Amino acid sequence: MKFVIQRVQNANVEVNEKIVGKIKKGFLVFIGISQKDTEAIADSMIKKLINLRIFRDEEDKMNLSLKDIQGELLLISQFTLYADCKKGNRPSFTKSAKFDVAENLYQYIIEECKKTGIHVETGIFGADMKVNLINDGPVTILLDSDEI
Predict the structure, then answer these.
(1) What angle do CA 100, 3, 36 make, to 5 degrees?
(2) Number of domains composing the chain
């Protein structure tokens, strides 16, 4: 599982020219789900995400978490995070989970994040989405379940 986390001042996602999710200060998270991912892997990724301290404290150090600043989450599914570009110029997506498996894990991640008390907004799984954001920093962090 991969999470691309962007610290944002605000972000929103549109489907068919309609905003379906928007947040103020917080994390925009692109979520890639592979064939080998499970709820247990998702749980460890969520724990790391929620406790990640990358917001500035009063001493201008990255020392505060999403909960500390009462930040929000915008969760977007993105199967292309498992693109394999080793051969040729057209990516292969065979490492990505099958549609129904990925959708179920994505929904699980959403529900588990909501249980933390953080405000959660989402895109629409499988839809063609337009994502708008103001990256704060810029700060972008890649969490990969193979590395945590």
Answers:
(1) 45
(2) 1
Other CB atoms within 10 A of residue 129 CB: 17
- Which sequence positions are flagged as catalytic? 80
Q: Which residue segment(s) compose the domain that 61 sits in? A: 2-144
Domain at 31, CATH number: 3.50.80.10
Q: What is the pTM of this model?
A: 0.96
Q: Tens-of-pLDDT digits for all 148 residues of the chain?
A: 999 999 999 999 999 999 999 999 999 999 999 999 999 999 999 999 999 999 999 999 999 999 999 999 999 999 999 999 999 999 999 999 999 999 999 999 999 999 999 999 999 999 999 999 999 999 999 999 999 8
